[in-house]
Design a protein that fits this description.
Number of helices: 10
Largest sheet: 6 strands, mixed
Shape: globular
Helix content: 25-40%
Distance between the termini: 30 Å
Length: 243
């Protein structure tokens, strides 16, 4: 077990965001968190990395756990000249070899001398991934990492994540709005809306009344289109054959 929460509750100001969250993630596992806007998905990731403090409950981390975090977006001042290499040295300097290795593992080995503002959306997401990899994580958290990417770019990114999972033997927790992607490429799905409505393997979640009610799925044909990933993916639940 890499990380576990027990009865985790998070309140921002006087507003309760999450309540009674019990989850655990094992080494090498791919877990995807789904839910409507405002359901607490990003809040949960930020709490797991320590950016937010739970109001009650526990977070139990394995000794020596290293977490890499890829945020939903990065705000950059377009008047600020900065190379990729310089960005990866903030807030503390990283060895040149570590920077080159992280960029290579993110699939963009030749990016380090480019200006941030010249990067495409796909390159920027790979850069954020490279930054997360500098921590040599055994748990990688990704908050909607393919937001704004086209289908091909998304598929390429998911393939890269699965290669990393295998190479680094790390676990992945990913937030996604793309139900098709979730049901084809996750090993376990957590359906969140303030609390955990249901969780389990994609097919199991796809059959649940809670999932169907939350996403407005009315019949078995709609559900099958989402969770029948064995027939539409050679990897049967892994991300390496995305797209």
């Amino acid at each position: 077990m890499l990380i576990q929460t027990r009865n985790l509750c998070v309140q921002i100001g006087k507003v309760p965001i999450l309540r009674n969250i019990d989850l655990q993630v094992q080494c090498g596992e791919i877990v995807t968190i789904i839910g409507p806007n405002g359901s607490g998905k990003s809040t949960l990731l930020r709490t797991l990395i320590g950016a937010l403090t739970p109001s009650t409950g526990q977070i139990i981390r394995a000794p020596g756990l290293s977490i890499g975090y890829v945020p939903q977006r990065l705000y950059i001042d377009d008047t600020l000249p900065m190379t990729v290499k310089r960005f990866l040295q903030l807030p503390q300097r990283a060895p040149a070899a570590a920077i080159q290795s992280s960029l290579a593992n993110a699939g963009v080995p030749d990016l380090q001398d480019q200006q941030l503002m010249s990067l495409s959306g796909g390159q920027l997401q790979r850069l954020l991934l490279a930054r997360a990899l500098l921590a040599e994580p055994n748990l990688l958290l990704l908050d909607e990492p393919t937001q704004g990417l086209d289908r091909r770019g998304s598929a390429d990114f998911y393939r890269q994540i699965d290669r990393l999972r295998q190479a680094l033997n790390c676990a992945v927790i990913m937030v996604s709005h793309d139900l098709q992607v979730v049901m084809r490429r996750s090993e376990r799905v957590i359906c969140l809306n303030g609390h955990i409505r249901c969780q389990g393997q994609p097919a199991e979640v796809g059959r649940s009344a809670e999932f169907r009610a939350l996403f407005g799925i009315e019949d078995d044909e709609d559900a099958l289109a989402l969770y029948n990933h064995r027939e539409h993916s050679h990897c049967a639940g892994a991300m390496r054959e995305a797209g």
